[in-house]
Amino acid sequence: NAGVTQTPKFRVLKTGQSMTLLCAQDMNHEYMYWYRQDPGMGLRLIHYSVGEGTTAKGEVPDGYNVSRLKKQNFLLGLESAAPSQTSVYFCASSDPNRNEQFFGPGTRLTVL
Amino acid sequence: EDKVVQSPLSLVVHEGDTVTLNCSYEVTNFRSLLWYKQEKKAPTFLFMLTSSGIEKKSGRLSSILDKKELFSILNITATQTGDSAIYLCAVGDYGGATNKLIFGTGTLLAVQP
What we know:
By secondary structure, chain A is mainly beta. Helices cover about 0% and strands about 55% of the residues of chain A. In chain A, the strands form two sheets. In chain A, strands 2, 4, 5, 6, 9, 10 and 11 form a seven-stranded mixed beta sheet that branches. A four-stranded antiparallel beta sheet of chain A has the order 1-3-8-7, with no helix packed on it. The radius of gyration of chain A is 13 Å and the shape is globular. The termini of chain A are far apart. The relative contact order of chain A is 0.34. In chain B, the strands form two sheets. In chain B, strands 2, 4, 5, 9, 10 and 11 form a six-stranded mixed beta sheet that branches. Chain B has a five-stranded antiparallel beta sheet with strand order 1-3-8-7-6, with no helix packed on it. Chain B has strands at about 5, 10-15, 20-25, 30-40, 45-50, 55-60, 60-65, 70-75, 85-95, 100-105, 105-110. Chain B starts with a strand and ends with a strand. Chain B is built from no helices and eleven strands.
């Protein structure tokens, strides 16, 4: 039982490049989330999904897109990376009946 | 606008000290309050509180919620260097059946030997 996993762990991009972050969970959770964490800002919700095929915007969605084609996977895409997107990205999942979210190990992204 | 405020922002103590971390909130559709510990990587769950006045306890850590005054405290007794971490407070939003959490900025705790 791996819980929530994220790939890659680290990535360096140049401005304008694109990439996709993958999140996978094996707990059969309906809900999944993408956050970014910046110094002094706490965790901020980018996008979330309440089920396969559904996504919604969070607090800071601009510059990101997401897809949930399979229940266990939630993808976060950056179409044209900007230095302001340098951050640590966390994925999380939860059961609909509980507020507790389980987090992945994070992806450290640097955009030069 | 919903918000969660933690204090202090950072704290340095010595092993054996007792610390109290604070979390206040203004959230329209309050469902629960959660505490997480974050060391180098992912936040890990500590407690979830839904009712006022009922203390949750796990070893040297304990937490209590006051829904009238809209705050919670996390106590750590007999601190150890392994308690050094960022402690995150989050409030669960009942609205829209999304289980969204609103996080505070965290308290950075450093425990010195």
